[in-house]
Amino acid sequence: MRPFAYVRAADVDEAVRAVAGEPGAKFLGGGTNLVDLMREGIERPATVVDVTALPLAAVDDLPDGGLRIGALVRNSALAADPRVHARYPMVSQALLAGASPQLRNMATVGGNLLQRTRCPYFYDAAAACNKREPGAGCDALGGFTRGHAILGVSESCIAAHPSDLCVALAALDAVVEVRGVGGTRRIPMAEFHRLPGDTPHVETALAPDELVTAVELPAVPVAARSRYRKVRDRASYAFALVSVAAALEVRDGVVADVRLALGGVGAKPWRARAAEELLAGGPADEDAFARAAEAELEPATVRPGNAFKTRLARATIVATLRELSG
């Protein structure tokens, strides 16, 4: 590991100032992703700003019935919160589907939003990776692609976004609160993560000095009837091949409200807008679910190693909606 400076921030403003004055500095929360990347030599910050002492670890009710979740809330604590169980079960299920209990006890909500891809070429310093080294090329394009994305990809990067929680947050129209030297701003979850395009190394809408301080979940009545389904190579401690976060309300056989997002298939947490539009106001039956899934997956860009994901995603969407429809 390379030498680096360590700063323990006493408040949010101090943390932001410490990063703003040090190009390439990184915030340290749970460290479950950053420390691994530093050990592998993928991340090489000259300064690490420890934010674990900041007062950002509370879950508070909002006046509209939503929740405000501090960025330092541990994944295990959020998964166990009874308000999350009651109002947003897909969030609890997504958290419990990710990592191991030990990692969930350390990992934070803010860090989950910022975790980097698990593409093996990104982690291999000998491989070409535009996300790690802009302009280097992408060895994944002609390589092993089983875990890679099929939606939102480009010729510069086909890495899949790894988070389970972010898929649920995308379905719920969460809002991310961030603080920088210019003050506080709010970023809709749909705009927080960026597609790779020609700049896959630019992964979020954050400015270099900005710290995630909270995530707000709006009141979403349909979310009380929601599910997170994850398909992976083994039953635990594995990233999604395909995952589905879905909420569905059916009245008299008709879809009254629906929320749908996908993981494992997108270059970012993938809100399934095309599928939602087809489902809304239509019949809540298996044929409609299949048509909606096919419409969402129609623009997929597949390679021999991940072509199976279109069939798997379609089946997982249909199965999840079927379960929710009763």
Sequence-ordered SSE layout with sheet pairings:
Layout: E1 5-8, H1 12-20, E2 26-28, H2 34-39, E3 47-50, E4 59-61, E5 67-70, H3 75-80, H4 82-87, H5 89-96, H6 101-106, H7 109-114, H8 120-123, H9 165-171, E6 175-180, E7 183-188, H10 189-192, E8 211-217, E9 226-231, E10 242-251, E11 254-263, E12 270-271, H11 273-279, H12 286-297, H13 308-325
Helix pairs in contact: 5-9, 11-12, 12-13
Question: What is the structure about, briefly put?
Answer:
The chain has about 325 residues and is an alpha+beta fold. The chain is built from 13 helices and 12 strands.
Fourth CATH level, the homologous superfamily of the domain at 225-325: CO dehydrogenase flavoprotein, C-terminal domain
By secondary-structure content and strand pairing, the structural class works out as alpha+beta
State the CATH architecture of the domain at 225-325.
Answer: 2-Layer Sandwich
Number of strands: 12
Radius of gyration: 19 Å
What's the CATH topology name of the domain at 225-325? Enolase-like, domain 1
Distance between the termini: 53 Å
| SSE pattern, N- to C-terminal | EHEHEEEHHHHHHHEEHEEEEEHHH
Shape: globular
Biggest sheet features: 5 strands, antiparallel
* Structure annotation, total helices: 13
Contiguous uncertain segments of 5+ residues: none
The whole-number mean of residue pLDDT values reads 97
CATH class of the domain at 225-325, named: Alpha Beta
- The fraction of residues assigned to DSSP E strands is 15-25%
Strand order of the largest sheet: 4-5-8-6-7
Please give the share of residues in helix. 25-40%
